[in-house]
Amino acid sequence: MSQIMLVSMLLFFVLTVPVAIAVGLANMVGVAWDGRMTFLVIAQQLYAALDKYPLVAVPFFILAGNLMEAGGMSNRMVEFAKSLVGGVQGGLACSCVLTCMIFAAVAGSSVATTFAVGAILIPAMVRHGYPAPFAASLQASAAELGVIVPPSIPMILFAVSTDTSVGELFVAGLGPGLLIGCALMLYVWLYARRHGLGLQDGHGRLGVWTAFRQSWLALLMPVIILGGIYGGVFTPTEASAVAVVYALVVGLFVYRSVSWRDLSKVLHRSVVSTAVIMFIIANAGVFGFLLNRTGIPAAFGAWLGDVFSSPVLFLLGVNAALFVVGMFIETSASIVVLAPLLLPVAIQFGIDPAHFGVLMVVNLALGMVTPPFGVNLFAACSVAGISLEKLVRPLIPFVLVVVACLMLISYVPEVSLWARDLVYR
């Protein structure tokens, strides 16, 4: 049954069937081929895959990100980031990375970060003389911080799939997020100096104090969310609801940039995004259940243990495999299907679950900025109004920067675990 499921799923991928539908059809093919189960099992497991309390955070974080975008909070974050780093050559490009880091601390989604920040900064960078492909590539790459800097929807999915602590994963994502953000800012600064770009980036930016006064309520949001989680005031799931309430109150009654009429559009967009993710999770859950019945996970774990004789080789093999998987399969589906298979093997090699979870999320986040199915690329192209082909060449250095950071995260566990150990140990 497992072979026919895998073959049929790959066949559907080749036929460009959407990922969630391809996985669901593969489940139906597997059940029909097996003959010992009825299709009622699929309905039961679809429900079981979604009947998990931490998943409540997914729609709330998506809604919070959309409310921030509609309420003008993302624009204020951009102005504050520009006031901090916009005065140096290449400062506008550095502001893009810094804003993505701040916005990611609430939204938890890379696509939401791409649209919210890119809609402001990609046109601004083009006006300041940056090539449009470079600006779009930078935005797509920096937006992947949306799933690395906590809170992160893929980290929630990893925790749900493997019974790992959501809080520990969130804290462990701080170090890698800061590392990748600083590495990207260093690269764009060097690139701007080498090519003579960004000489006028400081023109029109606000002073730090002025920008802070205008944006302090928006900046307070990630402080409340992350401070509440790490301080034990509320759980990550409860934090998602707090984020929605805060964004709604600030947008409606303080900034007054969101009207009651606008809420219907925000809610509609959030419902559609949530439905897509939940549909993937549900079908991937059924896929994992059916594979478990065949004994594939145990056999796969034993095979990995035989092939890789040390943690160093295991991490190298996993990184290579996940990089390829991330290029073709959506991040949520990859995590729900692969995390339960790989984590037990990682634990056998003495790898901390929080470290491995962050490593897996960072690796699959690369798939969001690599063709052919990089969702961030399509979002950035849409905002910039250019074709995907124009992004490939300027994108390569950004991918290499993130890969270098990934190697450091893989083989220096302290990058991920120092904050986790500080909070939880």
From TrEMBL:
Keywords: Cell inner membrane, Cell membrane, Membrane, Transmembrane, Transmembrane helix, Transport
Domain of life: Bacteria
Pfam families: DctM (PF06808)
Subcellular locations according to the entry: Cell inner membrane
Residue spans crossing the bilayer: 46-68, 80-105, 111-130, 142-160, 166-190, 211-233, 239-258, 270-291, 303-325, 332-351, 357-379, 391-412
Membrane topology, record value: Multi-pass membrane protein
Domain TRAP C4-dicarboxylate transport system permease DctM subunit: 6-414
Coiled coil start-end: none
Primary localization class, coarse: membrane
Family membership noted in the UniProt record: Belongs to the TRAP transporter large permease family.
Subunit structure: The complex comprises the extracytoplasmic solute receptor protein and the two transmembrane proteins.
Role: Part of the tripartite ATP-independent periplasmic (TRAP) transport system.
PANTHER family: C4-DICARBOXYLATE TRAP TRANSPORTER LARGE PERMEASE PROTEIN DCTM, SIALIC ACID TRAP TRANSPORTER PERMEASE PROTEIN SIAT-RELATED
Protein name as annotated: TRAP transporter large permease protein
